[in-house]
Each structure stands twice: as structure tokens, then as C-alpha cells.
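Entry 12.
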Amino acid sequence: MTMRDNMVGMFALSLSGHDKGEMYIIIKEEKDSVYLSDGALKPIEKPKKKNKKHVQPVKSGMDEALADKLQNEKPVYNEEIKFAIKQRTK
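Predicted 3D structure (C-alpha cells):
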């Protein structure tokens, strides 16, 4: 699996665990893990840490405005994350 240099702001699908199949947005990236938020059960204040091997980044349909905010460390609200995921999963 090839990874982009920066996955922050991309949608990601959980591949394993009790949340398998759930859609998240990657809000932070570390060497071997990513931090995920869905704006509801996993708010941006308490993101889910998950091993990169256990998520599938979604390469299309990224919310550019939200990704820009996350990458430039501007304030992001849970409602924005929930809305972006809802639009993506319609």
C-alpha cells in the first residue's frame, strides 16, 4: 500500500476492529499511526488512534476546505467533520 506524504484531511475507512467499515477523517498523522475523527463518537478533541495498517485512505472526494484547515492547524469543528462524512457517504 503506497501512502501519500500527507494524509491529513483525507477520508479513511477502518479495516479492522469493532469500528470496521466506519468512515473517518484523518486529523493527524504520525510515523506508524493516524488519528481519526468522525465528529460524533470520536470528536476532534478525543480522536481515535489507529495503526496505518488498519485503515484504508480514500483517495477521492476529499473535502478540500476541511483538509486545508487541518493541514494549516486552523480551528475545525465536529459539525464540519460530521457534515463532510455525511456528504461522502450519501
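Annotation: The chain has a mean pLDDT of 91. The domain at 11-88 is CATH 2.30.30 (SH3 type barrels.).
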